[in-house]
């Protein structure tokens, strides 16, 4: 046979799963959108049309729902680890399994409420939630049979941030193709996404880490709340953000950060000098397309045995 | 000629406009996505291919940018009113103009920062912002030449909320087509959108009103943070929300609220009783499609001269 | 009570329905995405939390599936008319019902196949289909109890067309806000959507009419395949298209056509004259936003008793 | 320094480019949405905030437009190869460049036109086009400095196909998690995407190859137009499609095909037996989520020197 099967797999995407913990009046929830993919040891369902090794993808979904009910859900990474462990234990011919989980950004509704003494207090609601999609949290967990430990990657998408000063872009190459001049002070805006792989997952608080990374990226971008911080290029900002995460989280092995550069073009007031004389530092035209794209990945050097 | 022109208009959609006020280190921003449509007194560009009455839609966009730079931007409603007034004054043959403005939900980045005395304070950033799309704010403003005042409608979209108890749906019609039984306690989730028309716009704080409406809808849905509130049907919840807004905002004439009913189906554990015996009150399957849809519009009775 | 309920309704959106006719080896299919909304004679589910009049929206969906199975499906308009008739007959307190149906653009897969005599013929497949979304077909059908006949509107969305010549835009107003010069020959591109209401639906072949309208819009836009036709403005093109449809389909009462004007900006080669001297008539930058928008609605004058 | 830069790059995404060839009345067009990413030999713009090595991403876009005008555009693969060659030649410190180009599916408008002899002929329009997005064509071309040849991958997305019979799914594992029974005859529907890498690009007609692959996937799925072909599982169908492509195109080295399995659930008529007695083989409920996912990659064994 002249070909090798060099890639294969199957599973289920778009599995929606909602879990509520109703122990007492204070309810806690998780809503996930899950992809699960597995690889089997043989190929006969491909090459011979013989399905006897197939674990139905509906069964994989049922397994998730059943284990979610049985053991509860702590967060996406731990849920994925539980499902992966159970699947590898139960099905000996599954040689690899990966799960990708996006979490829905539900937050408790906050409300002011009068207290008996007449004052007002801000309460978190016991059982009502609002969708607050400032950034999407997701994870990707992969385990191959025989590996000593799973690969756990956490990430965020859609962190859209903007600053109105302290961003220059100067001294790049000027030649016959370049039309952009040096800029001393531009609007910088990005829709950041980042992902980091754990060197060790023992005793990790994945939720806290996620919040740390998100806040670090925003803080490195914006700088001090009063004085800001200067960005010389999106490359520089990406690099400093990733470096800061690795400095702060020693159990993280690798991090990648992608920063698109959403352009805000200065509105050209030259044709309108009789109406609005002088320079324009107020009105900009945000551009959806095209947009710059910059990414940086840093890896910790001293990783022993990390694959 | 056997036909009447019973509708016509033209304009520009998808106008992106960003404005920054840089008076001092504390910058303020607005980002809009704008539609502007106008109607002319004659039809000859349609019927005769004679374009001499056309105000180019690029000119409309330029006018916005120029006036935005000249006078600054206070918010979408006031900006629309300014543009509409100028357009009707400048172009005598424009008989109607409407503007639809969506605002981008930029919020200042908040950061903890050490104070000189060693304590920590939470600061709002002077010039860095984060996109927080919990609900989209928009407005629609329309003015016909000769009208005594413009029609101003404010609205929100995408307020996604969920509660895990205090929602029943019972005593509806049961017949040969119905398969859903009475439900005592279900998960209720909606992606609310609402719009309200002003009876009067004098001295209105549009931003504050918008926040009031958004909070009222969330509060009517969730109820008391500890005890919640019972919903007997989405219809009931929609009605009570609108009524509350009209009670609170006497200068609002009409409000419409649309509440889709995003279904969360109980995961059927009957096939898995050996694994997870008993009832399931933990795991639900969120359904994207289909979804229920309910809307209610209330109008104030005592509106004199309101069209 | 200080308010009137001036609008209300409920129903189900996003109902996916697939029907296959398997009489013989030649299968025929319909796939719909349906919205159904109804209004009841009373309001007590809103004002009192009393649900006894509610026809559950799941029941409405079941009714559709059951009738679809029983009577088959001829097309979206006729299916909507059947469901509407049944609903009004069965539920005496339903005072209005509307349905919006989008159809999925499945077409038979075509294949060349060798014939016994050695020649090749192009066959339509008996039971395999491909999604060909050149334009989306939809309809909106509304019936109020007591009306003599339903309102039937058919429409299309997403007909994206472009021509590379025979489009000018000249002699419009030039003033202090205009920056666009007269253009003799530009690229014209639009994503057309249109809708038409029937004066009479007796013996109408809705599918054939839909294809006629789609083809008329494309033909009026493009003109003769060799020589084309001149467009003096998008307004003119919209008007001529609608007029042609009303000329061709006497049982159509009203038609609206919306033509966004997707801009293709000439790439400015002035900074690159040493590399590419002379004018540029080859490279354009398509712009997603903003885009012009033009619409025209024509109504037949001699409509007796049409509401 | 405790970290390595293990990944980096930058460029421009969402570059829209339209090219028209107007030599004579028969115009030809290309519309692309382009991503271009490059890697530089050094890192100082990341580590030191020193930008002197940066080729501005606007300059990359200008280079594309200028070369597109100068040399014309034959297709996405050849355009990418031209841009990549020029960039590597001009900028000696660019060590890698990749381009991803999506093409817009413009087709000539076809029209029937009367001939002088009174008969009718179907013409392709000289300069008017319609968007026919049955499947999206794209390519990915990558070149590292020093490599003997570029990596060229062509692909398609969004080929949505469905068949109403000749699909079974049987004999898979049945255990405590499985709820799906064996199915003899189901509706099979997928939104196929595929990508193939060339072993050699000499004298390749990329457009013809793309059409061959698309047609092969549709043909393997649907089978004979009269009799069809039996699918025992999506795995089997994916495998046979890829195998057929490699059989037909000897200059293709590797191909991957991903076939989501869009579920069409039989509408359960058991509660409605009084209305529609017997089995239901007509009405199905299409499900958007979740959906199965299957992929297969085959590689030619005898590839000498292929990296």
Automatic annotation (TrEMBL), chains A, B, C, D:
Pathway info: Purine metabolism; urate degradation; (S)-allantoin from urate: step 1/3
Pfam families: Uricase (PF01014)
Chain positions recorded as O2 binding sites: 261
GO cellular component terms given for this protein: peroxisome
Binding site for urate: 58, 169, 186, 235, 261
Record keywords: Oxidoreductase, Peroxisome, Purine metabolism
Superkingdom per UniProt: Eukaryota
GO molecular function, a single term: urate oxidase activity
Localization: Peroxisome
Ligand binding (5-hydroxyisourate): 169, 186, 235, 261
Record keyword Oxidoreductase present: yes
Protein EC: 1.7.3.3
GO terms under biological process: purine nucleobase catabolic process; urate catabolic process
InterPro entries membership: Uricase (IPR002042)
Catalytic activity: urate + O2 + H2O = 5-hydroxyisourate + H2O2
Function: Catalyzes the oxidation of uric acid to 5-hydroxyisourate, which is further processed to form (S)-allantoin.
Protein's name according to its UniProt entry: Uricase
Lineage: Eukaryota, Metazoa, Ecdysozoa, Arthropoda, Hexapoda
